[in-house]
Here is the input.
Amino acid sequence: MPSTPWPRPVLAANWKMNLGPAEARQFMAAYLAQPPARHAGSMIIFPPAVSLVAARDAAAARPGIQFGAQNIYWEDKGAFTGEISAPLARAAGATCVLVGHSERRHVFGETDEETGRKCEAAARTGLTPVLCVGETLGQREAGETETVVLRQLRAGLARLTREQVAGALLAYEPVWAIGTGRTATPADASTTHAALRVAVGVILGDPHHGVPILYGGSVNPGNAAALLAAPGVDGLLVGGASLDPASWAAIAASGERPD
Ligand code: 13P
Here is the structure.
C-alpha cells in the first residue's frame, strides 16, 4: 500500500456491473484521446473483475491511472466458487479494492464483520482498501447518520494495524444518493466527512492524518466541482457518470487547479 499521501483530488470511477473487456478498451481509448486534466490528482478506475486486465493494458500509456477490484473475498485461494481473492485481483493489475460498497451491503447482505475481514485481506496483500460507508434514508431521517457511518468505519478498520489504517482510503456514500439523482449537499458531505476524519484520527492517535475521504452518490459533471470544493472532501467516487468517457473527462477536469 502506498505510504505516501494520495495527491488530491482522488477521482475514482466505479463501473459496477458494466463494460466488458472490449468496452473497457474502447472506454480507455476514448478517454485517453482527450487532453489530460492538469494537476488532476489521483485516478482509480474500478472495472468489473473480468475487465481489469483489458482496462489496465489499454491505459498503459497513462501509468498514473490506477485500477482496482470492486470486491474481494478474504481467503487467498481455494474452493470459493465465484469469488476473487486479493492476490488474484493484484495479479490482474489491481492496486486498490472497494470494500463494503452499499450494494454489497444492501443487495448482497455483506456485514460489518465481513468488511473488516476484506480490509484485512486487502491490506496484507498490498492492496489499498477503499472502505465505503453510508446511511440509508431511514437512518438519516432518524438522525442516525453519524452513528451508522462510524460503526461501519470502526468495524471495517478493526483488523488493520495503525500503519494499514493510515494507508487506507474512505468513501462516504449515502445510500439514498446512489443512483437516485439526489446528491448530498456539499455541506452534508462536509459534516459527515468531518466526523469520519475525527474518528480515524482517534484510531491513529493523530488528528492530522492524511487518510483521504471521497464522496459518492449521484456525482456528475455539473456538481463535481462544488462537491470537490467542500471542506473535507478529498475526492469523488462516481458510478453512472463514470461510464461515459466524455462525462468522466469532464469530472476529471473539475479536479483541475489553477497553476
Ligand atoms: P452513482 O454515481 O451512480 O450514484 O453511484 C455512486 C456509487 O455507488 C459509486 O460507488
Notes: Residues 68 and 94 are 4 Å apart (CA to CA).
